[in-house]
Amino acid sequence: MPTISTFFGIVIAMYWREHEPAHFHARYGEFEAIIGIETLEVLRGGLPKRALALVLEWAREHRPELIEDWRLCRANQAPKPIQPLE
Question: What sign has the CA pseudo-torsion 10, 51, 45, 78?
């Protein structure tokens, strides 16, 4: 699973050739959430409230890049790194 960004102990990744809908994985310690790119809804799993707020803030700022990385992964190509939340 390629890591596309890391910030504040949160790891953001995407799998190659994943199923729809477009989404990314966010891990924080033992927690993991799968988050839809278009809706920014948690599709499965969960994160602590503060970690989820940071992930959603980051995803709103980088939605076009997330969509592009999704397309790359679906084509079995390496996604591009995305700047972390600052």
Answer: negative
Burial of 83 (0-12, 13-18, 19+ CB in 10 A): exposed
How many Å is the Cα radius of gyration of the chain?
Answer: 11
pLDDT tens string 29-66: 999 999 999 999 999 999 999 999 999 999 999 999 99
Residue ranges of domains in the chain: 3-74
- The whole-angstrom separation of Cα 18 and Cα 22 is 8
Distance CA 86, CA 78 (A): 24
